[in-house]
Amino acid sequence: MDSEHGKNARFGMVIDLDRCDGCGACMIACAVENNVPPGHASATERTGITWMRVAAVESGQEYPAADVAFVPMFCQQCENETPCISVCPQNAVEIDPATGIVGQIPQRCLGCRYCMTACPYHARYFNWRDPAWPEGMDRQLNPDVSPRMRGVAEKCNFCHGRLHAAKAKAAAKGSREIDPADYVPACVESCFQNAIVFGDLNDHESEVAKLARGADTFRFLSRLGSEPKVYFHSTRPWVKEMAESTLTRSKKENGHG
Amino acid sequence: MPTHLTRRDILKLVGGSAVGFFFTPVPWKLLDDTSIWTQNWSKIPPLPRGERTTRYSACTLCPGGCAVRAQLVGPMPYSLRGVSGHPVSRGFLCAVGLAGHHMAFHPLRLASPVRVDGAGDEAKVVPISADAAMRMAAAKIREGNGSVALLDCQPGRAVSAYYEDLARMIENGLYVTAASREDSTLQALRSMIGEESAPLGFDFENTSMILSFGAPLLDGWGSPGRLERLLKGKPDRSVRFVQVEHRQSRTALQADLWVPVNPGGERALALSIAHVLLMERPGRRTSATTIADMASYKETVARYTPEAARAESGIEPALVRQVAEELSIAPASIVLSGPDAGGGPMERDTEYAVAGLNLLLGNVGKKGGVVFLHEMPGTAGRSHVVRDIRDVPDHSLNLLIIDPASSGYAVPWKSLERKLCPGTGMVVSLAATMDEIAAHADIVVPAPAPYESLQDVPTQTGASAATFGLSTPLLPADKRSVDPASFVAGVIRLAGFPLPVPQCDDLLKERGRMIHAERRGTIYQPADGSTVRVAELAQFDELWTKLAGAGVWVDDPKEQHEPAEASLGASMLQSRGGPRRADPGLLLIPYGYKRAVSGAAISPILSKLSQESALRPGAGTVALHPVTAALSGVVDAECVLLDTTNGTMKLAVRIDRSVRPGVAEAVAGPIGRHGADIMDLCDVREDGTWRMTNANVRKA
Q: A254 in a domain, yes or no?
C-alpha cells in the first residue's frame, strides 16, 4: 500500500466456479453496497446496471447431461494496456498504482461510452437515467458511496468505499498498512459458498496469491494480454475452454460448443 | 507613436480573438462544466448522515430465520449481512434477505386499510378505517354462515398458538396453515408412528447419506445456512447427497448424484427402492420398529420392481438398485421429500412412499436419521397438529383471515378461492404490501413490514433441536400499520367473544417465560458470539435481555429411541394401483425461488437478478428444450401462446438444453413488470397440488 516505500499492493480475486451456485447474493450485496439503483421498468440486460453480473453458462450438452457453470463477471481490473483507460478522452479512468485498482471518476466522464465499447468483458455500464430509488429507500443509501449521475459510465471498483474505510481505520491506529480483514468487498463478504477469495496478489503468502498460482486457475480472454487481476478456478475442462471463447452476455449466447 | 485605428485593425482584433479563444481553456472548461451541469440538474439523492451503529436482528421474510447484522446510519439500516457462527443460519443471508430492509419502502406498501368493491378490472379500492375493517369481519363471524378460518403460513410462532386459541373460541372456527410442506416427510412419519404431536427433525450433521425427492435442500429449504454449510462444494462434502428431481434445479446441479425422474414419477421410484430393499436385499438394515401393515405394504411394492416402475419413473433399474444399495450400506441415512417453491407440494401418497423408506431403513429415532425433539415450551400437543387448508372442504369458509407471515413458497389464489362460500365468503388479508393474495382480498389491512416490529422466529423445518429467536426492530414503527394479533383479537371481541387483546410483545414474553421455566438449552448472542446455559440465568429478565439482543435459544438434544410400532400407509399407497406410464403430452411445470415466488413482493433491487441480468429467468418467459421447440415450430425469443384448460398466456420462449424434452418450464416469479402469473394457467387439484398441467405451445 505504501507507494513511497515500494510496497504497492495489487488487489485481485480468485473465483472458484465449481463452488459458485448462482444464488445471486453477490449481485444484490454489490448493488446495495455501491448505491446502484433498482432497474427502471424499461431496463433490460443491455441497459441495466449490474457491477457484478452472474451469468449461467451451459455446457452445451443435452438434458440430463447438461452442465451449468455460474460465472460472476465484473471489471477484471486489467493491468496491462487497460482497454478502458487507453480509450478514455477525459482521463476519467485511472489505475491506482498503490492498489492496482482501476477506478472510474464520474465527474470527469463525458458519457461517450468509448470505454464500454473497448471493455472485452462487457463490465461497464452507462447511466441512461437519473439514479432513482422508491421514496424512503433513498434514506437507506450507503453513506460512503456517492450515487452516480445520469450520462456517465460506471463499473466495479472493488468497493472503494470499503478501501477508504479500511485506510481510515489504519490511519487512526497510526499505520499506513491496512489490515486485510478490514478490506473485504461486499460480494466476497456475501458469498456463503466462499467461492470468492480476495486479497493482495503481491503478497505471495496470501491465499489469493497462492490460489492464483494454483492448478486449474485461469483468466478470461487471457489471449488479449490485458493481464486481468481477477482469476477463475474450475476443474471442468469445458469451463476453462469457455474462458477463451467469445464472452457474450446471456445464457443462450454462452452455449458452449 | 501614432495610434491610427482602422476598421481593418478592429476586424483583425475580433478575428484574432475569436481564433485565440479556442486556444484558451475557456471553451473546454465550459464544455466540461456543461456536461457536469446536465448530469447534475436532476435530483441526485443526498447521502444520509448520522451516527453509525451496528445492531442485530433476524430476517422474517421466510421461516428460515437467518440472523442479520445491520449497519445503521442514524435510525436507518443501510446494509444487512449474515452472522457467522450463528447456530441457526451459520452466517447465511440470501439475495432476498440482503435487501430485506427495503421492504418498508416498497412501492406497493399499504398506507391504510382498504375495502375492495367489485372484481377484476372494475374493482374499486376504498380506504377505510381499521375499526371499520374489524366491524365488517366481525359481522361475517356473527352471520354464522359457514366456517371462520385463520390462515397462518408460518406456524410454530408464539402468535400461532394464540391464533389457535382464538379459533377454538369461535363456533366453526379453524386455525389452518398453507405452510410450505417442507416438513411433509416429518408430517407423514408422525402419522405413521402414531405420534401426531411428536416434534421431529433431521440429524443432517451426523448422517452419511441424504436421499432427497425434490426437496430444494440447497435453494432455501429449512434453515438454508445449515444445509448450505453441510453440503457446500462436492470435494469437501462428508455426506453422500442424492437428489431425485425432474428438473435440473440448483440443488440437482450440486448433488453428488442427480436422478432425473419423470415428472410425477417420484412415488414409483420410492416404491421401487422399497422393493429392492425388501425383496432383493432383505435384512441389510434392521429396525426395532414393528410395522403393522407390512404384509399389505409388501403386496404393494411387489408390483414395483425397478423394471416395472421404469415406465413411470423413467429411471434405469441399475440406477435404482445402486441407490438402494447405497442406502442399505450407509451407516445412517435420511430420505425426505419436499415441494418446489413455485411448483408446490407433492401428492400425499408420494410423500408417504418417500417417508416410509426411513422406517424400512430404521432411520427413525436414531442418530444421523430422523430424530425426536423436546417439545417447544408452551406448545405441548398442539403446534404440530395444524390443519392444512387443502384439507378444508371446498365452499365452506365464510370468513378467511390471512396472517401476513409468509412461508416463502407459492400459495396460488385458486387454492384459497375454492374454499370460500360462493358469493358470500370474505377474505381479510393482513399484509405489508399489496401482494398477490392481498390483491384478491375483500379487505386489506396494513401490517408491519420486516424489521418494523418485534417478532419471533419459529423453529426451522427439520431442525434437530427446537429454537426460539427474536427479530428485533431496525426501523421506526409505521403508525399506519396494525398489529396482526391485536387486529384478529379485536375482530373476535367485536363478534361477541370477550377476551383481552394482547400485544405481540406479551405473547413473546410469555413464551420466553416458559423457556426460562424449563431451564433447558443455551442462548447464543450474536454481538459477541457467546453462549450461556438457560439454567445459569436466575431471573427471566436476564433471559429476555439476551433474547432482545437478537439472541437465539437452542434446545438440548433429546435422547433417541426407535418407535415400537408404525405403519407404512399401505392403504394409501394401494389406492393408486400399480405403476403408470408417464403422460406423453407437453407438461407445464412451474418452479420458483423461495421467497421470490408468485405473488410475493420483494425489494425492487432484486431486478438485478431477473430483469437486468439473465441469472434468474423472470416471469413472462417459458423455457423449452430445442426438440420441444422444434416440434412446436417456435424459435428462441419468439413470443408464443401457452394454452392450458385454464386459459392462454403470451410468453417469450427461452430455448434451454437443460430443460427436459416434453416439458415447458415457467418460473412462478415475483410480482414483475410483465404481470404474467403462470399460476393462473396451472391446474390446482383437489389435493392441493399444481405441479404439472397439460399444456400446448403455439405461435402467437
A: no
- For the domain that residue A89 is a member of, what is the CATH number? 3.30.70.20
pLDDT value of position B669: 76
Question: Domain limits at A47?
Answer: 3-242
Percent of chain B with pLDDT over 90: 71
Q: Are strands B693-694 and B426-431 parallel, antiparallel or unpaired?
A: unpaired
Q: What total of structural domains would you count in chain A?
A: 1
Interface contact A134, partner B, CB < 8 A: yes
Residue A134, min C-alpha distance to chain B (Å) = 6
Cell 427461452 belongs to B654
Q: List the single residue in B76, B225, B248 with the smallest CB-CB distance to A140.
A: B76
Cell numbers at B344, concatenated = 408446490
Q: How many whole angstroms separate alpha carbon B669 and alpha carbon B680?
A: 12
Cβ neighbours, 10 Å, residue B511:
21
> Three cell numbers at B14?
475580433
The contacts of residue B484 (CB under 8 Å, 6+ apart) are: B159, B403, B404, B430, B447, B504
Question: For residue range B206-215, what is the model confidence (pLDDT) as tens digits?
Answer: 999 999 999 9
Kindly list the residues from chain B whose CB atom is less than 8 angstroms away from the CB atom of residue A239: none
Kindly determine whether residue B43 and residue A130, on different chains, have CB atoms separated by under 8 Å: yes
Within the 183-202 window of chain A, which residues sit less than 8 Å (CB to CB) from chain B? 189-190, 192-194
Residue A237 has pLDDT above 90, yes or no: yes
Residue A226 in any domain: the answer is: yes
In percent, how much of chain B has pLDDT > 70? 94
What integer pLDDT is reported at residue B437 of this predicted model?
85
pLDDT of the residue at B675 = 59
Whole-Å CA distances, B436 to A244, B399, B422, B629 = 45, 18, 20, 31
Q: Do B35 and A53 touch (CB under 8 A)?
A: no
B604 contact residues in A (CB cutoff 8 A): 38-39, 133-134, 137
Statement: residue A256 has pLDDT above 50: no
Q: Which residues pair with B444 in a beta bridge?
A: B114, B429
CA distances from B449 to B22, B62, B480 (A): 59, 13, 11
Q: Is residue A257 part of a domain?
A: no
Output the average pLDDT for chain A.
Answer: 91
CA B301/CA B279 separation, integer angstroms:
9
The grid coordinates listed for B651 are 410468453
Q: How far apart are CA B301 and CA B576, in angstroms?
A: 12
Omega before A64 within 30 of 0, i.e. cis? yes
Instruction: Show the beta-strand stretches assigned E in B625-695.
Output: 639-644, 647-655, 663-667, 693-694
B281-337, pLDDT tens digit by residue?
877 667 788 999 999 999 999 999 999 999 999 999 999 999 999 999 999 999 999
Strand-pair category, B696-699 with B639-644: antiparallel
In 3D space, the residue among B183, B222, B216, B221 whose CA is nearest the CA of residue B200 turns out to be B183
Alpha carbon dihedral B226, B230, B232, B237, in 10-degree steps, equals -170
Beta-bridge mates of residue A72: A54
Chain B residues near residue A19 by CB distance under 8 angstroms: 232-233
ipTM of the complex as predicted: 0.93
- Nearest-Cα residue of chain A relative to residue B608: A50
Asked if B89 contacts B65 with a C-beta cutoff of 8 angstroms, the reply is yes
Judged by CB atoms within 8 Å, which residues 138-157 of A form the interface with B? Answer: 138-143, 145-147, 149-152
Question: Closest partner residue to B79 among A62, A137, A142, by Cβ?
Answer: A142
Domains of chain B, first to last: 7-40 (no CATH), 52-105 (2.20.25.90), 114-180+377-520 (3.40.50.740), 205-375+566-573 (3.40.228.10), 587-699 (2.40.40.20)
pLDDT band of B391, cuts 50, 70, 90 = confident
Indicate whether A250 belongs to any domain. no
